Amino acid sequence: MNLLCGTWMLALLFAGIYVLIDAIGHRHKLFAAFSAMHVITCYFMVQQMIEAVKNGSLTSGIFLPLAVISIITGVMITIMYIWRTRNVSILSIKEGIDALSDGLCYYYRDGRVKLVNPAMNMIAKDLIGQSVTDGRVLQDAVAACKDKIIRTNDGSIYRMISSEKDFLREPVIELIASDITDEYELREKLRERKSYLEGQRRRLMEVNDSITDLTIEKEILRTKIGIHDDLGKTLVTIRSYFAGTTSKEKLLSVFDRGISLMDSPGTGKRRDDYAAVLKAAADVGINVIINGQLPAGGYDAYVVSAAMRECITNTLRHANGDELTIDVTSNEHGETTVTFTNNGKPPEGEIKETGGLSYLRGIAVQRGADMTIESTPRFVLKLTLLGIRDDLL
Amino acid sequence: MEDKKKPYKIMIVEDQTMPRHLFEILVGHTGDYELLYSLESASVAHIYCDKYPIDLVLMDVVMQDRSSGLEAAERIKKNHPEIKVVIMTSMPEVSYIERAKAAGVDSFWYKEGDGEGILDIMEKTMKGERVYPAATPTVILGNIASSELTPTELDVLRELTRGASNIEIGEKLFISPTTVRTHISNMLAKTGFANRTELAIRARLEGLVIPED
Fold first, then answer.
1. How many CB atoms lie under 10 A from the CB of residue A256?
2. Does this complex have an ipTM over 0.85?
3. How confident is the prediction for chain A on average, in pLDDT?
Protein backbone atom coordinates (compact mmCIF):
# COMPACT_ATOMS: atom_id res chain seq x y z
CA MET A 1 0.00 0.00 0.00
CA ASN A 2 2.78 2.45 0.97
CA LEU A 3 4.65 1.49 -2.18
CA LEU A 4 1.57 1.94 -4.32
CA CYS A 5 0.78 5.35 -2.86
CA GLY A 6 4.39 6.42 -3.25
CA THR A 7 4.58 5.29 -6.83
CA TRP A 8 1.29 7.01 -7.67
CA MET A 9 2.47 10.23 -6.06
CA LEU A 10 5.70 10.15 -8.05
CA ALA A 11 3.70 9.58 -11.24
CA LEU A 12 1.58 12.62 -10.46
CA LEU A 13 4.74 14.63 -9.84
CA PHE A 14 6.24 13.67 -13.22
CA ALA A 15 2.93 14.34 -14.97
CA GLY A 16 2.88 17.77 -13.43
CA ILE A 17 6.46 18.39 -14.57
CA TYR A 18 5.51 17.33 -18.14
CA VAL A 19 2.54 19.68 -18.20
CA LEU A 20 4.75 22.45 -16.81
CA ILE A 21 7.36 21.95 -19.53
CA ASP A 22 4.67 21.89 -22.21
CA ALA A 23 3.07 25.04 -20.85
CA ILE A 24 6.46 26.79 -20.82
CA GLY A 25 7.14 25.57 -24.36
CA HIS A 26 3.86 26.99 -25.60
CA ARG A 27 4.48 30.14 -23.57
CA HIS A 28 1.19 29.75 -21.79
CA LYS A 29 2.20 31.68 -18.68
CA LEU A 30 -0.89 31.20 -16.55
CA PHE A 31 -1.03 27.51 -17.19
CA ALA A 32 2.69 27.25 -16.58
CA ALA A 33 2.30 28.98 -13.21
CA PHE A 34 -0.52 26.66 -12.21
CA SER A 35 1.51 23.66 -13.31
CA ALA A 36 4.46 24.90 -11.28
CA MET A 37 2.28 25.12 -8.15
CA HIS A 38 1.00 21.65 -8.88
CA VAL A 39 4.55 20.30 -9.17
CA ILE A 40 5.63 21.97 -5.93
CA THR A 41 2.57 20.59 -4.12
CA CYS A 42 3.27 17.11 -5.42
CA TYR A 43 6.90 17.43 -4.36
CA PHE A 44 5.97 18.36 -0.78
CA MET A 45 3.37 15.57 -0.69
CA VAL A 46 6.07 13.09 -1.71
CA GLN A 47 8.39 14.47 0.97
CA GLN A 48 5.72 14.13 3.66
CA MET A 49 4.80 10.62 2.56
CA ILE A 50 8.47 9.57 2.83
CA GLU A 51 8.64 11.05 6.38
CA ALA A 52 5.38 9.39 7.30
CA VAL A 53 6.59 6.02 6.03
CA LYS A 54 9.84 6.39 7.96
CA ASN A 55 7.90 7.29 11.09
CA GLY A 56 5.34 4.61 10.44
CA SER A 57 2.63 7.27 10.66
CA LEU A 58 1.22 6.87 7.14
CA THR A 59 -2.52 6.39 7.44
CA SER A 60 -5.47 5.93 5.08
CA GLY A 61 -6.06 9.66 5.33
CA ILE A 62 -3.48 10.03 2.59
CA PHE A 63 -6.00 8.82 0.03
CA LEU A 64 -8.09 11.99 0.01
CA PRO A 65 -5.31 14.43 -0.87
CA LEU A 66 -3.99 11.82 -3.27
CA ALA A 67 -7.35 11.66 -4.99
CA VAL A 68 -7.64 15.46 -5.16
CA ILE A 69 -4.19 15.85 -6.70
CA SER A 70 -4.98 13.04 -9.16
CA ILE A 71 -8.12 14.83 -10.27
CA ILE A 72 -6.29 18.15 -10.64
CA THR A 73 -3.53 16.46 -12.65
CA GLY A 74 -6.11 14.79 -14.88
CA VAL A 75 -7.85 18.10 -15.50
CA MET A 76 -4.54 19.81 -16.32
CA ILE A 77 -3.59 17.13 -18.82
CA THR A 78 -7.03 17.34 -20.44
CA ILE A 79 -6.81 21.12 -20.67
CA MET A 80 -3.35 20.79 -22.19
CA TYR A 81 -4.58 18.28 -24.76
CA ILE A 82 -7.60 20.38 -25.74
CA TRP A 83 -5.50 23.49 -26.00
CA ARG A 84 -2.96 21.75 -28.20
CA THR A 85 -5.56 20.46 -30.61
CA ARG A 86 -7.44 23.75 -30.86
CA ASN A 87 -4.61 26.25 -30.94
CA VAL A 88 -1.60 26.96 -33.13
CA SER A 89 1.50 27.38 -31.15
CA ILE A 90 5.01 28.23 -32.13
CA LEU A 91 5.96 24.59 -31.93
CA SER A 92 3.06 23.53 -34.06
CA ILE A 93 4.03 26.15 -36.62
CA LYS A 94 7.53 24.82 -36.64
CA GLU A 95 6.22 21.30 -37.03
CA GLY A 96 4.09 22.39 -39.93
CA ILE A 97 6.93 24.19 -41.66
CA ASP A 98 9.18 21.20 -41.30
CA ALA A 99 6.53 18.97 -42.80
CA LEU A 100 6.15 21.11 -45.93
CA SER A 101 7.25 19.62 -49.25
CA ASP A 102 8.12 23.14 -50.41
CA GLY A 103 11.34 24.69 -49.23
CA LEU A 104 11.34 27.64 -46.88
CA CYS A 105 14.18 29.79 -45.68
CA TYR A 106 14.35 33.09 -43.84
CA TYR A 107 17.64 34.86 -43.43
CA TYR A 108 18.94 38.29 -42.53
CA ARG A 109 20.75 40.52 -44.96
CA ASP A 110 24.10 39.51 -43.52
CA GLY A 111 23.31 35.88 -44.32
CA ARG A 112 22.37 34.66 -40.82
CA VAL A 113 19.66 32.05 -41.11
CA LYS A 114 16.56 32.66 -39.01
CA LEU A 115 14.50 29.71 -40.12
CA VAL A 116 14.99 26.91 -42.66
CA ASN A 117 13.01 23.73 -43.13
CA PRO A 118 14.31 20.28 -44.08
CA ALA A 119 12.97 20.54 -47.66
CA MET A 120 15.07 23.66 -48.30
CA ASN A 121 18.12 22.03 -46.76
CA MET A 122 17.70 19.11 -49.11
CA ILE A 123 17.48 21.46 -52.10
CA ALA A 124 20.53 23.35 -50.83
CA LYS A 125 22.53 20.12 -50.61
CA ASP A 126 21.85 19.46 -54.29
CA LEU A 127 22.53 23.04 -55.26
CA ILE A 128 25.48 24.13 -53.12
CA GLY A 129 26.58 20.83 -51.61
CA GLN A 130 25.58 21.58 -48.03
CA SER A 131 22.68 22.64 -45.82
CA VAL A 132 21.85 26.32 -45.54
CA THR A 133 24.23 28.09 -43.23
CA ASP A 134 24.46 31.38 -45.09
CA GLY A 135 21.32 32.52 -46.91
CA ARG A 136 23.28 34.70 -49.35
CA VAL A 137 25.24 31.72 -50.66
CA LEU A 138 22.00 29.92 -51.44
CA GLN A 139 20.51 33.05 -53.00
CA ASP A 140 23.53 33.51 -55.29
CA ALA A 141 23.33 29.92 -56.42
CA VAL A 142 19.62 30.37 -57.18
CA ALA A 143 20.26 33.57 -59.14
CA ALA A 144 22.66 31.64 -61.38
CA CYS A 145 19.91 29.21 -62.41
CA LYS A 146 17.88 29.92 -65.55
CA ASP A 147 14.47 31.39 -64.70
CA LYS A 148 15.30 30.51 -61.04
CA ILE A 149 14.15 26.96 -61.66
CA ILE A 150 16.06 24.20 -59.93
CA ARG A 151 16.06 20.52 -60.69
CA THR A 152 17.15 18.31 -57.79
CA ASN A 153 18.83 14.94 -58.03
CA ASP A 154 15.60 13.07 -57.40
CA GLY A 155 13.99 14.71 -60.44
CA SER A 156 11.90 17.24 -58.57
CA ILE A 157 11.64 20.74 -59.98
CA TYR A 158 11.33 23.86 -57.88
CA ARG A 159 10.65 27.48 -58.68
CA MET A 160 12.53 29.80 -56.31
CA ILE A 161 10.89 33.04 -55.27
CA SER A 162 12.50 35.52 -52.95
CA SER A 163 11.22 38.70 -51.35
CA GLU A 164 12.12 40.92 -48.48
CA LYS A 165 9.92 41.04 -45.40
CA ASP A 166 9.98 43.08 -42.27
CA PHE A 167 10.35 41.11 -39.02
CA LEU A 168 10.32 43.12 -35.80
CA ARG A 169 11.63 46.13 -37.74
CA GLU A 170 14.49 44.18 -39.19
CA PRO A 171 14.56 43.17 -42.87
CA VAL A 172 14.45 39.44 -43.45
CA ILE A 173 14.74 37.75 -46.85
CA GLU A 174 12.18 35.08 -47.51
CA LEU A 175 13.15 32.36 -49.98
CA ILE A 176 10.45 29.91 -51.03
CA ALA A 177 11.05 26.84 -53.18
CA SER A 178 7.71 25.80 -54.74
CA ASP A 179 7.46 22.28 -56.03
CA ILE A 180 6.36 22.60 -59.67
CA THR A 181 7.41 19.15 -60.83
CA ASP A 182 4.02 18.07 -62.19
CA GLU A 183 3.24 21.45 -63.65
CA TYR A 184 6.64 21.67 -65.34
CA GLU A 185 6.30 18.26 -66.94
CA LEU A 186 2.86 19.13 -68.22
CA ARG A 187 4.16 22.39 -69.59
CA GLU A 188 6.98 20.63 -71.39
CA LYS A 189 4.53 18.17 -72.92
CA LEU A 190 2.30 21.07 -73.92
CA ARG A 191 5.22 22.92 -75.47
CA GLU A 192 6.20 19.86 -77.49
CA ARG A 193 2.62 19.35 -78.55
CA LYS A 194 2.27 22.97 -79.61
CA SER A 195 5.50 22.79 -81.55
CA TYR A 196 4.24 19.67 -83.30
CA LEU A 197 0.89 21.28 -84.08
CA GLU A 198 2.60 24.41 -85.36
CA GLY A 199 4.64 22.25 -87.71
CA GLN A 200 1.45 20.53 -88.84
CA ARG A 201 -0.17 23.90 -89.42
CA ARG A 202 2.67 25.10 -91.60
CA ARG A 203 2.58 21.92 -93.60
CA LEU A 204 -1.16 22.24 -93.99
CA MET A 205 -0.80 25.76 -95.35
CA GLU A 206 1.76 24.51 -97.87
CA VAL A 207 -0.51 21.63 -98.82
CA ASN A 208 -3.39 24.07 -99.23
CA ASP A 209 -1.44 25.99 -101.85
CA SER A 210 -0.43 22.88 -103.75
CA ILE A 211 -3.94 21.47 -103.63
CA THR A 212 -5.17 24.39 -105.70
CA ASP A 213 -2.68 23.41 -108.39
CA LEU A 214 -3.70 19.79 -107.98
CA THR A 215 -7.35 20.67 -108.37
CA ILE A 216 -6.57 22.63 -111.53
CA GLU A 217 -4.68 19.64 -112.91
CA LYS A 218 -7.66 17.43 -112.10
CA GLU A 219 -9.88 19.77 -114.03
CA ILE A 220 -7.55 19.72 -116.99
CA LEU A 221 -7.46 15.94 -116.86
CA ARG A 222 -11.24 15.80 -116.77
CA THR A 223 -11.39 18.04 -119.82
CA LYS A 224 -8.85 15.93 -121.63
CA ILE A 225 -10.93 12.86 -120.90
CA GLY A 226 -13.95 14.67 -122.28
CA ILE A 227 -12.05 15.58 -125.41
CA HIS A 228 -10.84 12.01 -125.73
CA ASP A 229 -14.46 10.85 -125.54
CA ASP A 230 -15.40 13.37 -128.17
CA LEU A 231 -12.74 12.04 -130.50
CA GLY A 232 -14.04 8.58 -129.80
CA LYS A 233 -17.51 9.71 -130.82
CA THR A 234 -15.99 11.06 -134.02
CA LEU A 235 -14.70 7.60 -134.89
CA VAL A 236 -18.09 6.08 -134.13
CA THR A 237 -19.76 8.66 -136.36
CA ILE A 238 -17.35 7.84 -139.19
CA ARG A 239 -18.18 4.20 -138.85
CA SER A 240 -21.92 4.84 -138.81
CA TYR A 241 -21.55 7.05 -141.90
CA PHE A 242 -19.92 4.23 -143.79
CA ALA A 243 -22.72 2.00 -142.52
CA GLY A 244 -25.18 4.46 -144.04
CA THR A 245 -26.86 5.39 -140.77
CA THR A 246 -25.42 8.90 -140.43
CA SER A 247 -25.67 11.82 -142.85
CA LYS A 248 -22.71 13.57 -144.46
CA GLU A 249 -23.65 16.86 -142.83
CA LYS A 250 -23.59 15.28 -139.40
CA LEU A 251 -20.22 13.70 -140.13
CA LEU A 252 -18.73 17.00 -141.31
CA SER A 253 -20.04 18.75 -138.21
CA VAL A 254 -18.42 16.16 -135.99
CA PHE A 255 -15.16 16.40 -137.97
CA ASP A 256 -15.18 20.14 -137.63
CA ARG A 257 -15.52 19.95 -133.89
CA GLY A 258 -12.89 17.24 -133.58
CA ILE A 259 -10.38 19.25 -135.58
CA SER A 260 -11.08 22.28 -133.43
CA LEU A 261 -10.43 20.25 -130.32
CA MET A 262 -7.16 18.86 -131.68
CA ASP A 263 -6.16 22.35 -132.63
CA SER A 264 -6.48 23.60 -129.08
CA PRO A 265 -3.43 25.34 -127.65
CA GLY A 266 -1.42 23.94 -124.75
CA THR A 267 -2.22 24.46 -121.14
CA GLY A 268 -0.32 27.71 -121.17
CA LYS A 269 2.12 29.06 -118.68
CA ARG A 270 1.36 31.25 -115.70
CA ARG A 271 1.30 34.87 -116.81
CA ASP A 272 2.92 37.71 -114.96
CA ASP A 273 1.02 39.92 -112.52
CA TYR A 274 0.22 42.66 -115.02
CA ALA A 275 -0.49 40.68 -118.21
CA ALA A 276 -4.24 40.34 -117.65
CA VAL A 277 -4.82 43.97 -116.71
CA LEU A 278 -2.62 45.33 -119.53
CA LYS A 279 -4.42 43.15 -122.04
CA ALA A 280 -7.76 44.33 -120.65
CA ALA A 281 -6.67 47.95 -121.04
CA ALA A 282 -5.64 47.33 -124.64
CA ASP A 283 -8.92 45.50 -125.36
CA VAL A 284 -11.06 48.35 -124.06
CA GLY A 285 -9.01 50.98 -125.89
CA ILE A 286 -7.01 52.46 -123.03
CA ASN A 287 -3.37 53.15 -123.70
CA VAL A 288 -1.20 52.49 -120.65
CA ILE A 289 2.04 54.46 -120.42
CA ILE A 290 4.48 53.17 -117.81
CA ASN A 291 7.39 55.36 -116.73
CA GLY A 292 9.77 53.41 -114.53
CA GLN A 293 9.88 49.84 -113.29
CA LEU A 294 6.76 48.26 -111.79
CA PRO A 295 7.26 46.03 -108.72
CA ALA A 296 7.94 42.51 -109.90
CA GLY A 297 6.05 39.76 -108.09
CA GLY A 298 4.93 39.46 -104.50
CA TYR A 299 2.29 41.39 -102.65
CA ASP A 300 3.48 44.75 -104.00
CA ALA A 301 2.72 43.63 -107.56
CA TYR A 302 -0.68 42.41 -106.37
CA VAL A 303 -1.50 45.83 -104.91
CA VAL A 304 -0.23 47.73 -107.96
CA SER A 305 -2.13 45.53 -110.42
CA ALA A 306 -5.29 46.05 -108.34
CA ALA A 307 -4.68 49.80 -108.50
CA MET A 308 -4.21 49.56 -112.26
CA ARG A 309 -7.57 47.81 -112.63
CA GLU A 310 -9.34 50.48 -110.59
CA CYS A 311 -7.71 53.30 -112.48
CA ILE A 312 -8.56 51.72 -115.85
CA THR A 313 -12.17 51.36 -114.67
CA ASN A 314 -12.19 54.98 -113.53
CA THR A 315 -10.68 56.20 -116.81
CA LEU A 316 -13.24 54.25 -118.80
CA ARG A 317 -16.42 54.80 -116.79
CA HIS A 318 -16.04 58.22 -115.21
CA ALA A 319 -13.28 60.17 -116.92
CA ASN A 320 -14.07 59.09 -120.50
CA GLY A 321 -10.36 59.02 -121.17
CA ASP A 322 -8.25 56.73 -123.31
CA GLU A 323 -4.86 57.03 -121.67
CA LEU A 324 -3.56 55.99 -118.27
CA THR A 325 -0.11 57.11 -117.15
CA ILE A 326 1.78 55.27 -114.44
CA ASP A 327 4.89 56.89 -112.97
CA VAL A 328 7.11 54.70 -110.78
CA THR A 329 9.84 56.22 -108.61
CA SER A 330 11.98 54.88 -105.77
CA ASN A 331 13.87 56.61 -102.99
CA GLU A 332 17.03 55.77 -101.07
CA HIS A 333 15.00 54.08 -98.32
CA GLY A 334 13.71 51.43 -100.72
CA GLU A 335 10.22 52.94 -100.88
CA THR A 336 8.48 52.87 -104.23
CA THR A 337 5.87 55.43 -105.22
CA VAL A 338 3.45 54.57 -108.02
CA THR A 339 1.36 57.47 -109.34
CA PHE A 340 -1.67 56.99 -111.61
CA THR A 341 -3.17 59.77 -113.74
CA ASN A 342 -5.39 59.80 -116.84
CA ASN A 343 -6.18 62.10 -119.73
CA GLY A 344 -9.91 62.18 -119.13
CA LYS A 345 -12.08 64.82 -117.52
CA PRO A 346 -11.45 65.58 -113.85
CA PRO A 347 -13.86 64.41 -111.13
CA GLU A 348 -16.88 66.61 -110.54
CA GLY A 349 -16.49 66.48 -106.80
CA GLU A 350 -14.56 64.79 -104.03
CA ILE A 351 -14.13 61.10 -104.82
CA LYS A 352 -15.77 58.74 -102.36
CA GLU A 353 -13.92 55.53 -101.75
CA THR A 354 -16.47 52.81 -102.28
CA GLY A 355 -16.39 49.40 -103.91
CA GLY A 356 -13.12 48.90 -105.76
CA LEU A 357 -11.27 51.87 -104.24
CA SER A 358 -12.28 50.78 -100.77
CA TYR A 359 -11.01 47.27 -101.49
CA LEU A 360 -7.79 48.72 -102.86
CA ARG A 361 -7.18 50.76 -99.73
CA GLY A 362 -7.82 47.65 -97.64
CA ILE A 363 -5.16 45.57 -99.35
CA ALA A 364 -2.73 48.51 -99.43
CA VAL A 365 -3.10 49.08 -95.70
CA GLN A 366 -2.64 45.37 -95.06
CA ARG A 367 0.71 45.69 -96.76
CA GLY A 368 1.57 48.77 -94.76
CA ALA A 369 1.46 50.85 -97.92
CA ASP A 370 0.18 54.39 -98.06
CA MET A 371 -2.55 55.38 -100.53
CA THR A 372 -3.71 58.88 -101.35
CA ILE A 373 -6.33 60.07 -103.82
CA GLU A 374 -6.63 63.57 -105.16
CA SER A 375 -9.81 64.75 -106.82
CA THR A 376 -8.79 68.30 -107.74
CA PRO A 377 -7.56 69.73 -110.04
CA ARG A 378 -7.44 66.24 -111.54
CA PHE A 379 -7.64 62.63 -110.46
CA VAL A 380 -4.38 61.30 -109.01
CA LEU A 381 -3.96 58.04 -107.17
CA LYS A 382 -0.66 57.55 -105.38
CA LEU A 383 0.61 54.38 -103.77
CA THR A 384 3.71 54.38 -101.58
CA LEU A 385 5.10 50.89 -101.06
CA LEU A 386 7.54 50.29 -98.25
CA GLY A 387 9.64 47.68 -100.03
CA ILE A 388 9.22 45.04 -97.31
CA ARG A 389 10.18 41.54 -98.45
CA ASP A 390 7.24 39.15 -98.53
CA ASP A 391 9.22 36.45 -96.72
CA LEU A 392 9.82 38.78 -93.80
CA LEU A 393 6.11 39.44 -93.25
CA MET B 1 -38.07 39.63 -119.68
CA GLU B 2 -36.69 41.77 -122.49
CA ASP B 3 -36.48 39.83 -125.71
CA LYS B 4 -32.95 40.33 -126.90
CA LYS B 5 -32.03 39.51 -130.44
CA LYS B 6 -29.72 36.65 -131.13
CA PRO B 7 -26.85 36.01 -131.40
CA TYR B 8 -26.22 36.85 -127.78
CA LYS B 9 -22.84 38.33 -126.96
CA ILE B 10 -20.91 36.08 -124.64
CA MET B 11 -17.82 36.52 -122.51
CA ILE B 12 -16.06 33.49 -121.04
CA VAL B 13 -13.94 33.85 -117.92
CA GLU B 14 -11.97 30.64 -117.32
CA ASP B 15 -8.32 30.51 -116.32
CA GLN B 16 -7.55 27.04 -117.68
CA THR B 17 -6.77 27.06 -121.39
CA MET B 18 -8.23 23.69 -122.29
CA PRO B 19 -11.63 24.08 -120.66
CA ARG B 20 -11.77 27.66 -121.92
CA HIS B 21 -11.12 26.51 -125.45
CA LEU B 22 -13.74 23.83 -125.10
CA PHE B 23 -16.33 26.41 -124.09
CA GLU B 24 -15.25 28.64 -126.96
CA ILE B 25 -15.86 25.78 -129.38
CA LEU B 26 -19.24 24.98 -127.86
CA VAL B 27 -20.35 28.59 -128.05
CA GLY B 28 -18.95 29.03 -131.55
CA HIS B 29 -20.77 26.00 -132.93
CA THR B 30 -24.19 27.36 -132.20
CA GLY B 31 -25.69 30.22 -134.06
CA ASP B 32 -27.24 31.61 -130.92
CA TYR B 33 -24.09 33.03 -129.40
CA GLU B 34 -21.23 35.24 -130.44
CA LEU B 35 -18.06 35.09 -128.42
CA LEU B 36 -16.83 38.60 -127.67
CA TYR B 37 -14.03 37.90 -125.30
CA SER B 38 -12.43 35.00 -123.52
CA LEU B 39 -10.51 35.93 -120.35
CA GLU B 40 -8.12 34.15 -118.03
CA SER B 41 -8.74 36.31 -115.00
CA ALA B 42 -11.92 37.32 -113.20
CA SER B 43 -10.21 40.42 -111.87
CA VAL B 44 -10.62 42.32 -115.16
CA ALA B 45 -14.03 40.97 -116.21
CA HIS B 46 -15.87 44.07 -115.03
CA ILE B 47 -13.69 46.27 -117.25
CA TYR B 48 -14.97 44.48 -120.37
CA CYS B 49 -18.53 44.69 -119.13
CA ASP B 50 -18.10 48.46 -118.70
CA LYS B 51 -17.00 48.77 -122.31
CA TYR B 52 -18.86 46.22 -124.38
CA PRO B 53 -22.54 45.24 -124.72
CA ILE B 54 -22.17 41.80 -123.21
CA ASP B 55 -25.33 39.76 -122.74
CA LEU B 56 -24.01 36.80 -120.80
CA VAL B 57 -20.87 35.97 -118.86
CA LEU B 58 -19.75 32.41 -118.19
CA MET B 59 -17.66 32.76 -115.06
CA ASP B 60 -15.41 30.21 -113.38
CA VAL B 61 -15.04 30.59 -109.63
CA VAL B 62 -11.48 29.63 -108.68
CA MET B 63 -8.72 31.25 -110.75
CA GLN B 64 -5.07 30.51 -110.70
CA ASP B 65 -4.27 34.17 -110.06
CA ARG B 66 -6.45 33.94 -106.90
CA SER B 67 -9.09 36.26 -108.31
CA SER B 68 -12.61 35.23 -107.34
CA GLY B 69 -15.29 34.63 -109.93
CA LEU B 70 -17.96 35.21 -107.31
CA GLU B 71 -16.58 38.61 -106.38
CA ALA B 72 -16.28 39.53 -110.06
CA ALA B 73 -19.86 38.36 -110.66
CA GLU B 74 -21.10 40.47 -107.78
CA ARG B 75 -19.37 43.55 -109.16
CA ILE B 76 -20.75 42.98 -112.64
CA LYS B 77 -24.31 42.46 -111.37
CA LYS B 78 -24.05 45.57 -109.25
CA ASN B 79 -22.95 47.83 -112.09
CA HIS B 80 -24.74 46.01 -114.93
CA PRO B 81 -27.76 44.12 -113.62
CA GLU B 82 -28.90 43.49 -117.18
CA ILE B 83 -25.92 41.26 -117.90
CA LYS B 84 -26.61 37.58 -117.20
CA VAL B 85 -23.99 35.73 -115.25
CA VAL B 86 -23.62 31.97 -115.10
CA ILE B 87 -21.20 30.65 -112.51
CA MET B 88 -19.37 27.46 -113.44
CA THR B 89 -17.40 25.35 -111.05
CA SER B 90 -16.22 21.81 -110.46
CA MET B 91 -15.83 22.40 -106.73
CA PRO B 92 -18.54 21.08 -104.44
CA GLU B 93 -17.72 23.90 -101.98
CA VAL B 94 -20.92 24.24 -100.02
CA SER B 95 -21.02 27.99 -99.73
CA TYR B 96 -20.75 28.79 -103.43
CA ILE B 97 -24.44 28.40 -104.21
CA GLU B 98 -25.54 30.71 -101.40
CA ARG B 99 -22.87 33.24 -102.21
CA ALA B 100 -23.85 33.16 -105.88
CA LYS B 101 -27.48 33.80 -105.01
CA ALA B 102 -26.52 36.61 -102.68
CA ALA B 103 -24.42 38.18 -105.45
CA GLY B 104 -27.39 38.10 -107.81
CA VAL B 105 -25.88 35.49 -110.13
CA ASP B 106 -28.49 34.27 -112.59
CA SER B 107 -27.51 30.62 -112.91
CA PHE B 108 -25.12 28.13 -111.44
CA TRP B 109 -23.62 25.10 -113.14
CA TYR B 110 -21.42 22.27 -111.96
CA LYS B 111 -18.94 21.34 -114.65
CA GLU B 112 -19.25 17.82 -115.91
CA GLY B 113 -16.25 17.71 -118.18
CA ASP B 114 -17.88 17.56 -121.60
CA GLY B 115 -19.65 20.92 -121.32
CA GLU B 116 -22.78 19.94 -123.13
CA GLY B 117 -25.02 20.73 -120.20
CA ILE B 118 -23.90 24.33 -120.25
CA LEU B 119 -25.74 25.13 -123.45
CA ASP B 120 -29.05 24.22 -121.85
CA ILE B 121 -28.21 26.40 -118.88
CA MET B 122 -27.31 29.31 -121.12
CA GLU B 123 -30.49 29.01 -123.12
CA LYS B 124 -32.67 28.95 -120.05
CA THR B 125 -30.79 31.83 -118.49
CA MET B 126 -31.23 34.01 -121.54
CA LYS B 127 -34.93 33.24 -121.42
CA GLY B 128 -35.00 34.72 -117.94
CA GLU B 129 -34.88 31.58 -115.85
CA ARG B 130 -32.63 31.22 -112.84
CA VAL B 131 -31.13 27.77 -112.93
CA TYR B 132 -29.57 26.49 -109.78
CA PRO B 133 -28.77 22.96 -108.67
CA ALA B 134 -31.08 21.62 -106.00
CA ALA B 135 -28.14 20.93 -103.73
CA THR B 136 -24.39 20.87 -103.59
CA PRO B 137 -22.92 17.64 -104.88
CA THR B 138 -22.27 15.27 -102.06
CA VAL B 139 -18.76 14.00 -101.58
CA ILE B 140 -17.63 11.17 -99.40
CA LEU B 141 -15.52 12.29 -96.51
CA GLY B 142 -14.20 9.34 -94.59
CA ASN B 143 -17.12 7.39 -93.19
CA ILE B 144 -19.81 9.92 -94.03
CA ALA B 145 -21.32 11.91 -96.85
CA SER B 146 -20.56 15.63 -96.77
CA SER B 147 -24.27 16.37 -96.30
CA GLU B 148 -24.00 14.97 -92.78
CA LEU B 149 -21.87 17.89 -91.64
CA THR B 150 -23.67 20.86 -90.17
CA PRO B 151 -23.24 24.37 -91.64
CA THR B 152 -21.16 25.45 -88.62
CA GLU B 153 -18.96 22.39 -88.92
CA LEU B 154 -18.34 23.23 -92.56
CA ASP B 155 -17.45 26.82 -91.60
CA VAL B 156 -14.97 25.51 -89.04
CA LEU B 157 -13.60 23.03 -91.56
CA ARG B 158 -13.08 25.76 -94.12
CA GLU B 159 -10.96 27.77 -91.70
CA LEU B 160 -9.17 24.62 -90.61
CA THR B 161 -7.95 24.02 -94.14
CA ARG B 162 -6.17 27.39 -93.99
CA GLY B 163 -4.06 26.03 -91.16
CA ALA B 164 -5.77 28.36 -88.68
CA SER B 165 -5.52 27.63 -84.95
CA ASN B 166 -8.60 27.13 -82.79
CA ILE B 167 -8.26 30.68 -81.49
CA GLU B 168 -8.05 32.12 -85.01
CA ILE B 169 -11.03 30.05 -86.13
CA GLY B 170 -13.02 31.19 -83.13
CA GLU B 171 -12.22 34.85 -83.81
CA LYS B 172 -13.24 34.50 -87.44
CA LEU B 173 -16.53 32.77 -86.67
CA PHE B 174 -17.30 34.53 -83.37
CA ILE B 175 -17.31 31.36 -81.34
CA SER B 176 -15.08 30.26 -78.49
CA PRO B 177 -11.99 28.09 -79.05
CA THR B 178 -13.64 25.45 -76.91
CA THR B 179 -16.61 25.35 -79.25
CA VAL B 180 -14.22 25.10 -82.19
CA ARG B 181 -12.52 22.16 -80.56
CA THR B 182 -15.88 20.50 -79.99
CA HIS B 183 -16.86 20.87 -83.63
CA ILE B 184 -13.54 19.44 -84.78
CA SER B 185 -13.90 16.52 -82.38
CA ASN B 186 -17.41 15.86 -83.70
CA MET B 187 -16.18 15.90 -87.28
CA LEU B 188 -13.34 13.53 -86.46
CA ALA B 189 -15.81 11.20 -84.78
CA LYS B 190 -18.14 11.31 -87.77
CA THR B 191 -15.52 10.91 -90.48
CA GLY B 192 -13.24 8.52 -88.67
CA PHE B 193 -10.12 10.50 -89.55
CA ALA B 194 -7.22 10.25 -87.17
CA ASN B 195 -6.54 13.95 -86.68
CA ARG B 196 -7.46 17.42 -87.80
CA THR B 197 -4.70 17.53 -90.39
CA GLU B 198 -6.04 14.50 -92.18
CA LEU B 199 -9.56 15.92 -91.98
CA ALA B 200 -8.45 19.24 -93.47
CA ILE B 201 -6.44 17.69 -96.28
CA ARG B 202 -9.23 15.30 -97.25
CA ALA B 203 -11.82 18.04 -97.25
CA ARG B 204 -9.57 20.24 -99.33
CA LEU B 205 -8.74 17.48 -101.82
CA GLU B 206 -12.42 16.82 -102.36
CA GLY B 207 -13.05 20.52 -102.86
CA LEU B 208 -15.71 20.40 -100.17
CA VAL B 209 -14.43 23.59 -98.58
CA ILE B 210 -12.20 26.21 -100.13
CA PRO B 211 -10.79 28.89 -97.86
CA GLU B 212 -11.02 32.47 -99.01
CA ASP B 213 -7.55 33.92 -99.53
1. 12
2. no
3. 84
